[in-house]
Amino acid sequence: MSSGSIADKGKVNPARKVCANNPGTIRHSYSFPRILLANVRSLVNKMEELQIILGKNQIDIACPTETWSATEDSCSIPNYDSHFKPRLDKDGIPLSHGGGVAFFCKCTLPNRILSFSEIENNSKTEVLWLWTRPKNLPKDVSCMIFCIIYYPPRSGFKKELTAYLQLYTDRIRHKYPYAAITLCGDFNELDQKWLSAALSLDQVVKSPTRSDKTLDLIFTNVEDYYSAPKIAPPLGASDHLCIFWTPLLSFPPKPLISYSYRPITDEKIAHFKVKLSSKSWANILCLTNGDEMASKFSAELFQLYCDTFPVKKVSYKSNCKPWINKKILCLTNERDRLFKEGFFQESRKLRNIIISEIRKARKEHGAHVLNKLLCSNPKNLHKCIQDLMGKVSSKFLLLDSNGNPVSADIINDYFSSTCRTHPPLQNMPANSAVSDIPVIRIHQTQLKLENLDTNKSVYPGDIPTKLIVKCAHYLSVPLTAIFKQCLVDGIEDLQLLSDDGGSKIFPDSSSNKVHYGHPFYSR
Question: What is the per-residue pLDDT across 111-134, written as a single tens digit (0 to 9) for each?
Fold first, then answer.
């Protein structure tokens, strides 16, 4: 909801009210549906009781499993749309006993069944997908996708079903970005931990639903908007308990997201070069200890870097996209002010400008993020793609021949066993001071610094590599003196240019060379 449209009329936004009993929370009128999950074990003879439960608990979507021979003609409820998928035999004919899943969705909710042709004709799978879009959802939820599943015990197609669920959950995330995905049903022997990791969904049912076992499960990515599922008595003579899953009425407001960075502009780089050119390193060059020289040089250079490039802190609301900048927010406030004062034509003109600015900012932000990830770390790019899809890193993706997850200990033991037959390596002798000191010239150090790879990322808090490259001329003099002194002292591992000790140089006394790496030193 745009800011000002209701508030400008002197009314309170009905979707956002502060709770009187608890001022720290906000009451929302989001229309998340109320869910009923139940293994009914034949639905035909339990329709009257099911209708009473739906009306009494104001259920919006009912998800029964093991419906058996139920059809739309034999099982219908007034004011509810019904969708059924029975169990099929080898010839594709519905069976009269066992299996089957269904949805009962209120007619006030727009809904439709999502069909996947590759799986519809497979008699082994009892899966049904439902799309719905309640009228009032948060900004971070575009629609709601429900999947009802029944996995028969000892059925023997665990791999096929889990692979299918993982594949089509990913396809749904691609087709419906920011969708609220919920998979529920009777999973029997399926490993819920593996499914939760593979589907990137949280399992919210914690209580037993049949005897002392939790067989009826709910996997979802909108658990923050719902209360914990409640267990209710079974439907009729079924041996499975019912599950009621209801949305929350109030919850704490989302906090501001803050991050800090140091803006590096051409103007500030030029100012940094002026400071370096006037900087005297005499207090460092007069020292006779390599460690002390490096420590003092690192501290003074980093302090100069912090003074020239101060930290800038940015905060934004979590329900705003990262490309929404101050300019867009100011334009939005100005548009609301013009609308409130009755300047409707000017407000419409500003509306078009805002739309153009948002498109421009989104395009620039996407190009910037992609270029940054491509240049810095492919791993971060892969993680960003997973975040856009709503996924997290899967933990149990390797399976043995029986379909059970393989633990990391088994993999570690296998690889470590390859080198257990060999004796351990003896400690290598430490380098000693170099008697014949090699000639390290200033222009050689400068050339090494200028050829550093600026696409490599740096440790948090380090001076960026591109800044070192541009200031190589001014840094080469003190660094050359430090490298020479390190060779004299026989120092192997010298920490330099880092506020957390993460960056290093390695003088190599055996070959009379200095190894440069990241940001300009590594072995």
Answer: 999 986 544 445 567 899 999 999
pLDDT at 367 over 90: no
Are the CB atoms for 510 and 442 separated by under 8 Å? Answer: no
User: In terms of C-beta density within 10 A (0-12 exposed, 13-18 middle, 19 or more buried), how is residue 132 classed?
Assistant: buried
Same domain (yes/no): 45, 186:
yes
- Cα torsion through 457, 462, 466, 472, rounded to 10: -140
Q: Which residues, 6 or more positions from 102, have their beta carbon under 8 angstroms from its beta carbon?
A: 43, 63, 64, 67, 70, 75, 82, 83, 84, 85, 128, 148
Residues forming a β-bridge with 513: 508
Provide the residue range defining the domain that includes 240: 25-251
> By three-state DSSP, how is residue 192 classified?
helix
Pick from 258, 33, 17: which is nearest to 136 by CA? Answer: 33
Any domain includes 178 = yes
Looking at the domain assignment, is residue 504 inside a domain?
A: yes
Please count the structural domains in the chain.
2
Q: Quick check: is 368 in a domain? A: no
Single pTM value for the model: 0.57
Q: How far apart are CA 184 and CA 148, in angstroms?
A: 5
Q: Which two structure tokens, joined as six digits, stand for 396?
A: 């149990």
- Tell me the pLDDT band of 515, cut-offs 50, 70 and 90: very low
Q: Is the pLDDT of residue 514 over 70?
A: no
CB-based contacts of 15, cutoff 8 Å, min separation 6? 1, 28, 29, 30, 136
Q: Is residue 347 part of a domain?
A: no
Q: Are residues 118 and 194 in the same domain?
A: yes
Residues 215 and 293 both lie in one domain = no
Do residues 135 and 170 both lie within one domain?
A: yes
